[in-house]
Task: structure prediction
Amino acid sequence: MRTVGVIFRRELAAYFTTPVAYVFIVIFLVLAGALTFYVGNFFERGQADLQAFFDFHPWLYLFLIPALSMRLWAEERKSGSLEMLLTLPVTVPQAVLGKFLAAWVFVGIALALTVPLWLTVNYLGHPDNGVILGGYVGSFLMAGAFLSIGAACSALSKSQVIAFVISAAVCFLFIAMGSRIVLGPVQTVLPTWLLQTVTSLSFLDHFSGIARGQVAFSDVIFFGSVMALFLFANTLLVELKKAD
Amino acid sequence: MHLIEIEGLAKSFGPIEAVRGVSFSVNRGEVLGFLGPNGAGKSTTMKMLAGFLTPTAGWARICGHDVVTDGLAARRRLGYLPEGAPAYPDMAAGDFLMFIARIRGYRGAEARRVVADAVARVELGAVFNQPIETLSKGFKRRVGLAQALLHDPDVLILDEPTDGLDPNQKHHVRELIAGMAQTKAIIISTHILEEVDAVCTRAMVIAGGRVLVDGTPAELEARSPYHHAVYVRTIGAVPDVIIAELTALPQVRRVEPSGRADDPGVYVLPSGDADTAAYVRHLFGLRGVTVAELRVERGRLDGVFRDITQAAA
Result:
């Protein structure tokens, strides 16, 4: 666990020694704000809540998270530093966990910086702060799930561009799992139970409940399972691909 | 117990057999030089020893710990410099070494002490706070070396530690390795033959994934046809009569011109262990020809290297 902590600290610090952190945070805040006010009609809705803010998170994450996660493994493999890292007394699961946690905490920091929005609704009215807290928790969990997908995809290739494109595509699949775009072509072919299973994997469904303040245990378990599954896949992929 | 033990180690990448059954062991106090053409399997063998690649067959142990089944313990006792000395380019050299120290389990003041020690040993103080990506090739390599020997490991594996360094830096790194040689088992890979002579107590020629020769650098030199050959230069060309007389001696196998247009000297290649130099000197004196230069060659490693690796190919 101490080793995970050492890797975590290095990774987190690395975000802030390069422009990555600042660019990511600024773009995230600007986009989150713009979408909330202009597309989500924050003022016109006349309601003191952050619904308009949280509704856009899946779509924001769809391309921002892969941009963050694409370098996690692809860069290490390309530069050869992976060989240095894995010949230290470090196991692959420790490295996977340390890197993932650093990226997740980093997204958490970006998310925490949207607090002025929360202050704004509290200034303008009397929102249900429990619902808002639930929204933040849900958004953070969903970001973790996206990140785990992105991290696994990053281990697939030495090319960060390929890692980005594949992660964005996989993330989109998970967002839109229940929608017609994904299920349309196969709707008539697949048995109902399978359709229901696939639909139940939709991030959108699991997140929309949380964003409305209903933090269901099943949703928490769902995002947790997605993270566990993809981090496991990440470990296997690093083991498998490290020598290429 | 040998600090490094390897038995029947092999690695294939699909249909390509990079390493085909390598076995050897290295004791404390030995510096083993891996020699071989590019693609010979040197780096692959080192990567398996360092636990980065999993062998297809055979096993390897570092200080008695199997590199696959007990990899963590093996890697704790090992310092490894990968080819090209990769590091995190965004990090300052000092921060990077602090990271390595923490990964190696050092904390607080102790971590600062081991980092300061390593920095002093490879003379890195001047660039301690500079990002690694801004460093020259020599300093980058030294950061990699500091990383490998920070925890004072019993076993050091260095993949081309002097590649790309200038002659002064090369000399410094060789001194560093020689200074540690007594207390450690060290493997270095190189294709610079003079390096083998300078630092290694043992040389191993690898080509096509196999060990072709395993001996001391002196034994390797002894395989050269120029081993104990006598170079003689006179003022002006060496007279043909003397060359004929030299060739007729039973102690002489062959007389060769130096091969350079501006050098009138000749090489007298001995047959067997004869002390040819004495005969040569005597003959020249007898014929009244003044010798301007006379020296005994030790043997040419590059020739030996070519002969061994090309015969195998």
Notes: Chain A touches chain B at residues 2-3, 6-7, 10, 13-14, 17-18, 79-81, 83-84, 86-91, 242-243 (CB under 8 Å). The longest helix of chain A spans residues 129-154.
